[in-house]
Amino acid sequence: MINQPIVKLGIVGVSRDCFPISLTQARVAALMAEVKKAGLPEVYDCPVTIENEKDTMKALDWAKKNGINAVCMFLGNFGPEGPTTMFIQKFQGPAMVLAAKEEGKANLASDRGDALCGVLNFSYSVGLRRLRVYIPEYPNVTPVEAIKELADFRDIARVVIGMRNLKVIGFGPRPFDFLACNAPIQPLYDLGVEVQENSELDLKVQYEKMARKSSKIKAIAADMEKELGPKRNTYPEIINKMAQLELALLDWYENNKGACNYAVFANKCWPAWQPVFHFEPCYVNSRLTGRGIPVACEVDLYGAVSEFMAECASELPATLLDINNSVPDDVLPKNADLKGATAKDLYMGFHCGNTCSQCMKDCKIKYQLIQARLMSPDITKGTLEGQIKPSQTTMFRLQSNSDAKLVSYIAEGHFLDIDPCSFGGIGIAAIPGFARFYRHVLIGKRFPHHGAYAFKNVGKILFEALHLLGVEDINTPLPAGQLYPGENPFAI
Questions:
Q1: What string of H, E and C letters represents the secondary structure of 23-56?
Q2: Phi, psi angle pair for 325, to nearest 5°
């Protein structure tokens, strides 16, 4: 996938000067041996072991010269909390801490590291400097145990790095009919996300400009035909139009990232779009999202950002869906496996046709049924419709509320292998505990109808990334017996 940060993770060993520096160096070497054995990519050990502030500056110089953009501070022994946290403060990228477990009783007589103690003082010094650092649930690890923590942190860091280097590009005014998409944008700037809002006319001019690049349009159209095949390419007469739009968006992406490394789109897609362009943008949106450039519907800026975070966390395509409709009993097969959810916890995630083909069990190009009620079906062709593939999923959203405060939710579950018996890009989502979560979080905290969906369980990654980004109001489903704030205990 394109449009994704590559994490170059530095392992920086630290040693308190009253402990033998060789203890940290030997433990870093053992850790790196396991990293190599596990095949973790882009992980590098710093040749400088930090004992004092001068070492800190040398280690920072090494990180800069080698393009290190995330660090693990490794306490091979108690560690010097001042120089260690000074490194994190000046480094400014995402950071975590791990500490070495004692290897065995042979070490305890004279080569004890006391790193369990060191993490406590490290955490206090982090607080003094008002730094956000990822500290795993069990930060004291053996080299083998460290591999899972390092792998998780690489995913967390990818989300954070992406967000700090992201531009969200909007085309068109946020729709009056979907006021929930009109969230304040100040919190995006607070996160370090740039915002570029454009007119629908800008996209029309850009689209027409691409008409001169016929060879590129033909190449994209050929790729679309290959992806769809003859059975799914039901309206071949619009394939060149869709290819021209894809070229227009990719060209805008390349030429408008500016100072940012990554970009996403949130585009107006109705009601004026169809009479002007004479097709739906959904299939094109699905293709870009499938390659790592989310294109959110209905100028949903926070939806586009949420999709991007889901893709960074999972390294897979994501999608944006309406939390749409209930599931009638007669849709469910007898004794269906609901993956830990109850029938009340099921709902259908739907959108017109923006989910990429690789995330669909079956699909083909259709016309948008709802919009065709208001306008000619001939100009609403271009949705990619079918059943979303059965898989793990994480529903996720980062949102500004009306008071310009960031709020979020994360819930893990599955898309079921059950025919939704309906239109659009649609799937039956099973989220354990969803019924109460819907009422007391999604409704109770006034989240909009759109949610981003990763095709993998990445709740842990997103939760920790949000913490590093400074988002505190993170909502997750609560187990039975634990009340949500304001939930009526007598109504359960």
A1: HHHHHHHHHHHHHHHHCCCCEEECCCCECCHHHH
A2: -150, 160
